[in-house]
Amino acid sequence: MTVPYHHQVATSKPHLILKLLFRWKGSVWKSVLVEYLIWIVSYFIIYAIYRYALPKYNQKSLEEFIRFCDKSLGFIPLNFMLSFFVTTVVNRWTVMFTNLGLIDNVALFTAQYVQGDDARGRMFRRNIVRYCCLAHAILLRDVSMKIRRRFPTIDSMVPAGFMMPHELEKYESIKNRYNKSWVPLNWALSLLNIAKEEGRVDSEYLEYAVATEIRNLRANMITIWQHDWVSIPVLYPQVVFAATYIYFILALFARQFIIPQDQLSGEVDLHFPIISSITFIIYVGWMKVAMALLNPFGEDDDDFDCNFLLDRNLTVLFPELD
Amino acid sequence: MTVPYHHQVATSKPHLILKLLFRWKGSVWKSVLVEYLIWIVSYFIIYAIYRYALPKYNQKSLEEFIRFCDKSLGFIPLNFMLSFFVTTVVNRWTVMFTNLGLIDNVALFTAQYVQGDDARGRMFRRNIVRYCCLAHAILLRDVSMKIRRRFPTIDSMVPAGFMMPHELEKYESIKNRYNKSWVPLNWALSLLNIAKEEGRVDSEYLEYAVATEIRNLRANMITIWQHDWVSIPVLYPQVVFAATYIYFILALFARQFIIPQDQLSGEVDLHFPIISSITFIIYVGWMKVAMALLNPFGEDDDDFDCNFLLDRNLTVLFPELD
Amino acid sequence: MTVPYHHQVATSKPHLILKLLFRWKGSVWKSVLVEYLIWIVSYFIIYAIYRYALPKYNQKSLEEFIRFCDKSLGFIPLNFMLSFFVTTVVNRWTVMFTNLGLIDNVALFTAQYVQGDDARGRMFRRNIVRYCCLAHAILLRDVSMKIRRRFPTIDSMVPAGFMMPHELEKYESIKNRYNKSWVPLNWALSLLNIAKEEGRVDSEYLEYAVATEIRNLRANMITIWQHDWVSIPVLYPQVVFAATYIYFILALFARQFIIPQDQLSGEVDLHFPIISSITFIIYVGWMKVAMALLNPFGEDDDDFDCNFLLDRNLTVLFPELD
Amino acid sequence: MTVPYHHQVATSKPHLILKLLFRWKGSVWKSVLVEYLIWIVSYFIIYAIYRYALPKYNQKSLEEFIRFCDKSLGFIPLNFMLSFFVTTVVNRWTVMFTNLGLIDNVALFTAQYVQGDDARGRMFRRNIVRYCCLAHAILLRDVSMKIRRRFPTIDSMVPAGFMMPHELEKYESIKNRYNKSWVPLNWALSLLNIAKEEGRVDSEYLEYAVATEIRNLRANMITIWQHDWVSIPVLYPQVVFAATYIYFILALFARQFIIPQDQLSGEVDLHFPIISSITFIIYVGWMKVAMALLNPFGEDDDDFDCNFLLDRNLTVLFPELD
Amino acid sequence: MTVPYHHQVATSKPHLILKLLFRWKGSVWKSVLVEYLIWIVSYFIIYAIYRYALPKYNQKSLEEFIRFCDKSLGFIPLNFMLSFFVTTVVNRWTVMFTNLGLIDNVALFTAQYVQGDDARGRMFRRNIVRYCCLAHAILLRDVSMKIRRRFPTIDSMVPAGFMMPHELEKYESIKNRYNKSWVPLNWALSLLNIAKEEGRVDSEYLEYAVATEIRNLRANMITIWQHDWVSIPVLYPQVVFAATYIYFILALFARQFIIPQDQLSGEVDLHFPIISSITFIIYVGWMKVAMALLNPFGEDDDDFDCNFLLDRNLTVLFPELD
What we know:
Five copies of one chain form a homopentamer.
Chain A: H1 14-21, H2 28-53, H3 56-72, H4 78-98, H5 104-113, H6 119-143, H7 145-150, H8 165-172, H9 182-197, H10 204-229, H11 235-254, H12 274-294, H13 306-320
Helix pairs in contact in A: 2-11, 2-12, 3-11, 4-11, 4-12, 5-6, 5-10, 5-13, 6-9, 6-10, 6-13, 9-10, 11-12
């Protein structure tokens, strides 16, 4: 579920921001915790080896290596890579999120233009909208982990009310190895056609108005499917994530405090790498933004709440139709 | 209310810019004031401890720590994070602001295509547009703090003229735990249908023209609702705001002037951190841009003036209909 | 008037670029002139005080301050702020400029679908298009300084041929404290309706085709109005412009040449701050780009030439209608 | 084929990221391998010359040159060029990818509005959709290497089922030296016209609905064609790629370890350029992102899988039509 | 002509990239050649003056100035300015390029909906499409240098087959000092109207379908015209190009090698400014990207090939109409 916090930032007062910073669910703190623990433990292993295990001569060599790493770390363009990659991923995420598919427009026009206060009229309206919900659910099953877990098989959609048993049969009689989410949309259009022929839709003009909304829903669904099919080429995230990890592996050495030669050298020996820990959390947290948004249909705290969406579509829309 | 200043920048003459800089309402100065006071007081507490409370030996250690902080501060990529995050937030804000929902197009076509100079004709036109205003107001109640305060309950919309008492009853008879802003739009479409049947709309083609505008309004409203529902994942603002705060907490130490050892060292001892204050105001002010725009329906000086919008829609549009 | 220079950059030959650089009208040189003069005079006042007015001891303190400023100037992220802010402003400017509202499409379809070669047919076509021009002019009066000066009152539109005296009366009889630019568009639609009833428009379908173009014009006009209503929150330009000004106030000190102690120090003493002048012109010129584009309806050399637009719309379109 | 990895980033757990990093197919490691081997071999050739082949005096000169290169390398703005160029290329790639052309909407409306359960009705529907697939395939032949190899001549489309032999004749009778992908779309529209005349399409309104979808497909196809016709001006990738290559040619010298003068100098002598290797992989990998996306219809691992698309369009759509 | 190179980057193999780098036509090497020669000659003039013409004392002053320039060069934010400006220009270029105006959609629908296999039917179809091509050509004459040279007067369009002599007369009888590209579009619509009246277009609905495509072409043309009318305010390119030129004028001094005082100083004296030459080519090449794209209708190697477009439109479309 996306973690809502808009009301916390209604004003930009400092105390509200503090509350925002100290959330746990979906937070940057939670997402970097494991990595940070691994990093800090590794840091202290190297710390112990350097200070207590190494003979004097090797210590010197290691110090030279530490200084060299420290100087060279700046060559890795982490800033640029992370900021541009995050922006690219956010843009992609925005496209997906604006195409998530609210079925409201279909429902608005179905309610209006498929007429008849009798049971049959209601049946037409309800089924057209339900078929859209069903198509949506079938698509999301292929895209979203959460929906896949909720509906491990197509059969499991029947008890949830998305599908009737006889529809399931009809659905499964169509053999095709690709996603079949278009099938219920065809049913919806056929139903609309029958309603038209029974005189429940005033004219083909209004029929087309409803059909256009169904087409728009399909366009939304195809956009989602396309973005699931063609990911950002794998070498882009690879190079960015690899740069981040390598940076901090080098930092394990580069950020070691060198034992001050004498009191006057002015070098500080803090033992605990406080600044490097902060840097670690900030950079890795930043990378996690990209990761969390790369597959917004996954299972992170902040991924799209497709279950909510499916339920809302069914619940909001049905009263509209009566 | 968004603070208007366009006429102040009609030309880019220097004196106009100065006037722009010294505004208070909605200004960067106002927004960073509290944070700056806290920061400067903390600065002088550390200043006092360092200079007067610490024994010589600890002073030396602190100085080492100060130098270390000063050197390490550059590792926090504040520039990159703030500039990219602000851009992302501005883009999102732009989408919301272009979908705020002006009901003008609905009114234009209603005025034109729902005919009849008699009272009933006027009633049709006025009610269709009023229902759109009502739907808009119901949505904004869920999104905007200010509208929520203006209309703490749905009932309070009746005296404001958005709703009739009998409509309120009808509205509340619909049970649904999600936002019901679609209800008045359905009413508007039904009314349009009746007008059509009474021969006040020339053809279904023109009816559809009006209906399309109502649908577009709904699409606008859904965009607003979606952006309220799915925020930018919380870890993105968290990591940016945390970086900013941590930067300035470290700066409390890093920017302390070290007591010059001797007259020749060339180190300056200004006591008051003038440059750091400037930096603080600029960076925190920049962060406040992101905060102010993150929830544009909040209560900052510069948030959208939804009350103005609702009132304007009602006022501008009604004469158009007669 | 936007300053045209496209034909100067037809190829990227060096001599063409030089010609481009040495233009004066709308140029960066013209826009930074006043600020630069103030800055350079201030620079030499401080120069004189430092070199001739201060006693030896204070001179030393000032030098320390100069060195400190020089070192600290890098903390102000001018690069990032200006580049991102300019990009945001350019995007906004682009949206405004593509919505400036050419009435060509209205004219194209009016000419085609409102038929009749007699005087009355011409009257219909001319008036529909003139009303659109009028609506456009009324809107621009509220937005653009130049149009406001050209038409200080609504009355002054009558002699300019945008409005007939009897239309002025009708216009002023509508009481409304908001912008009334929608009024002439309603007139245009009414006229279209009458033409339809007189059989001069073949069908409601074609009537709607014309009406849709009028609606699109209105959508353009509303976009302009919205962008005038909701500016970029004032704290964003404030923080950017303040950063720029503060940077150069500090530079007044930081860029002073320190009197070389002895011949061997290797410090240069150029007296005239040539590099800093260049930096000043570049940075402040960059800031001026943002300023000039922030309100493109102002009176800078490069702001939109709305007068040209209004005249062109009237002139280009009328022959098209006969 | 685009390499799918979305399910690997369903959550942002560390072990999933490691799995992502160690993929080979389409990976950054695979793409930089050849270049890296050439670079590292060159590095060791220079290493050998410097250490073993050069006389003392020339060694000194070379060391000066190495130090000079090391200092100057920072003048090449690789960060800026790569990050902005990659973003520009990614945006272009996104446009192409969203216009790849799914024929689903054509099929949806053809299935619905071209009626008749008899063989002739099915023939109409199947052929209209097949003609769209054919037009798509002809276009992609000109754009994509893979499709060109699959269909080296137009003739080879006949056995693949995209074309009938008599259609091939008709197609080749049209003489034109430009891409003829519009021909089958004309056929599709003609067929639609005939279906209309036979009463299989209810009205011209619905015929237009189908025709609009065919037009949209053509718009998609033209977008692809346009992007293939007008590349990003060649000097942009040239300057970026040249900068990257020159950077690493200089790095061959700049990153040589200088033989420490004495033990106390503190200079490290690692022999193997570990940090520079990392930098090489990251920067060249980053450049490869731009290269891989510059022509997404090429033969990289991550280029669009046009074969899949063509097959899917044929397979998914045909059951929909029966 | 845009220089095609897509097939060269079908894969990202190293040897392909080398081939890309060593192209000459439209290349960065060609575009910076003149500037580079001027720069390098100036460099050696200063070199000669510094080393051979100046007395010892002035040499010392110059060296101080060189060191000062070297230090100060970093104050010019060339990286930021070029990268953001290039991105802005690329975006603008993309808009122009996607609105170049392919007349395909007009032809597709004209071929379909303007019926009749006789000569008169063909005449209608051919003329409607030819008028669109003509309108396009008249617009491009005003925008593109190349088209202007091809058609120095409107008369010269007659032999090229875009216009008939009697049409030229009609065209010139319309007095108007603005671009008259709308005239042939009006003719096309009139012709369409006549075809409708003769029963060659089935209904006004289909007439409108064709008219809509003509309107879309006009919208494309207006977009091109608008972008030609309103350039990016001249002070933006001025400030960017000025910064680049000033940078390299300063570099003439800053990048001089200082004559090493003694053998031990470790300063290198390469005589030829190899790194600075590389930097020059990269930065000025980058600037040339902006220049080449600023006016894509100019005469650079990489500007839009409008002649090709006009010819293609005439050639591709005519067979489609028979």
